[in-house]
Amino acid sequence: MGELQKLSEDRAVALLVIDQQMDFEPGGALPVAGGTEIVKPIADLMRKFPFIVVTQDSHPPDHISFASSYQNKKPYDLLTLAEVEAGKVSGIYSRDTLVEYLRAVPEHRQVLWPDHCVVGTTGWFMDPQLPLERSTLILRKGVRKNCDSYSAFFENDGTSTGLSAFLKARGIRCVVTVGLAGDYCVFYSAEDARKEGFDVYFDPEFTRFVDFPKGSREKALEILKQRGARIVSL
C-alpha cells in the first residue's frame, strides 16, 4: 500500500487545501506561476480523503496588506515598523493602528500585495474544478481589515483561527498541506501545524511558490524540515 493511500484511509489525517483561489492562479490579481497545474491533482486528492479543510483568503476592501491602502507604496514593497514609527508612511490607516499591528507580526513587517481575494469578487472564489462539496470545513481567513492572515491556524498577529482545536476535537493528528502558495500560506500553515503538535506532510508537487523575496522557496522547505515536517513525494 502506498503512502498516499495509507494517509487517505487514516481517519486521523486531514487534507488542508490552502487558498486555491482564482486570484492566486494565472490571470488573477496575485498570480502564482504554475498555480493551475496543481488544480486537478488537488481535486483528485479531495476525492480520496474523508476529512478536508479548505481555506479561503477573504479580505475586505482597503485591507491593511494592500499596497493601494498607502501613499507612495507599490505591490511587493515592505511596510516596516521602523518607517511607520519614523512617520514616513501615510495612507488610510493611522500611525497607531499600524504600529500596533506591526509590533505583533513576525519580523515587524508586512509585504504589501496587489488588491486580491476581496470578498465577492471573481478572484475571491475557489477554483471551480475543486469538489468543494467534499469539504468538512471551509475556513475564511484574513477577514479582519487591520490584520493579514497567512496561516490556517493563526492570523499574522497571533490570533487563533480556532482550527487547531477544531481538528483535535475530531481526533485529527496529522495534516497533508497543499495549495497556494508554498512559501506563504501553505508554508505558514504547515509550520503552525507542527507547532500545534500535528504531524505534517508537505509535497512540493502539490503547491507552487511565489519565491519572493528570491530564495523564499528553499528557505521555506528548510525551515519545515527543521520543524520536523515530512517533505515527501506522495
Structure description:
The structure is a single chain. Strand 6, helix 6 and strand 7 form a beta-alpha-beta unit. Strands 5-2-1-6-7-8 form a six-stranded parallel beta sheet, sandwiched between helices. It has a two-stranded antiparallel sheet with strand order 3-4. The chain folds into two domains: 172 residues, Rossmann fold; 45 residues, no CATH class. It contains seven helices and eight strands. It is an alpha/beta fold and 234 residues long.
Chain-wise SSE layout:
Layout: H1 3-9, E1 13-18, H2 39-46, E2 52-57, E3 78-80, H3 81-85, H4 95-104, E4 109-111, E5 137-141, H5 163-169, E6 174-180, H6 185-195, E7 199-208, H7 216-227, E8 230-231
Parallel strand pairs: 1-2, 1-6, 2-5, 6-7, 7-8
Antiparallel strand pairs: 3-4
Considering the chains and any ligands shown, give keywords for the structure:
234 residues, alpha/beta, Rossmann fold, 6-stranded parallel sheet, two-stranded antiparallel sheet, 7 helices, 26% helix
Q: Quick one: CATH superfamily of the largest domain?
A: Isochorismatase-like
What is the CATH topology descriptor of the largest domain? Answer: Rossmann fold
Biggest sheet strand line-up? 5-2-1-6-7-8
Text of the CATH class of the largest domain: Alpha Beta
